[in-house]
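Saturday, quiet lab. Running sequence design on the structure tokens for the scaffold JK sent over.
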């Protein structure tokens, strides 16, 4: 029987995608859904989640579509890991759409987030990066677990999340 869907959240550069993909790769049959990829399906008129009413509308559509994909995988016996930057509103929407989901909020301080971001391609402007980090800190979403991962290396971060998911 598949584990309940796992949702990884946190500000930019906390390791949501890397951790989620590694967890999915370690399972017998598991899908990894990066909700940024789902949102980028809107190619004309796309709006970032922080860009007013249209951005919030598209953010909600991305969540609903990611949950639909997850339900389809789960119905076929495929485990699911989702990576997304949640807000209090979208964490509530995930709980409505995937009632059994496990939400894990990964947290790093801004200097560590900037250090991690320096090692990879970042699709955000510096102002957007800092704004998303500040929003995640000031108004965190609901989460079943919160993990401060500043001083944890990636293999241990993956292991900690795997243990929470299995519990």
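Result came back. Writing it out in full:
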């Amino acid at each position: 029987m598949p584990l309940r869907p796992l949702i990884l959240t946190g500000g930019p550069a906390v390791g949501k995608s890397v951790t989620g993909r590694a967890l999915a790769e370690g399972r017998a049959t598991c899908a990894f859904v990066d909700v940024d990829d789902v949102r980028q399906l809107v190619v004309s008129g796309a709006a970032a989640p922080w860009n007013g009413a249209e951005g919030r509308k598209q953010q909600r559509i991305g969540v609903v579509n990611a949950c639909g994909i997850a339900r389809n995988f789960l119905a076929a016996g495929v485990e699911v890991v989702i990576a997304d930057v949640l807000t209090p509103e979208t964490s509530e929407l995930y709980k409505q759409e995937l009632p059994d989901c496990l939400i894990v909020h990964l947290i790093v301080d801004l200097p560590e987030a900037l250090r991690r971001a320096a090692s990879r391609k970042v699709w955000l402007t510096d102002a957007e990066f800092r704004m998303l980090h500040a929003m995640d800190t000031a108004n965190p979403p609901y989460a079943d677990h919160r993990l401060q991962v500043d001083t944890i290396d990636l293999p241990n971060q993956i292991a900690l999340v795997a243990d929470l998911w299995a519990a």
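Notes for JK: The domain at 6-166 is CATH 3.40.50.300 (Rossmann fold). The chain has one domain: 6-166. Ask whether to fix the surface positions before the next round.
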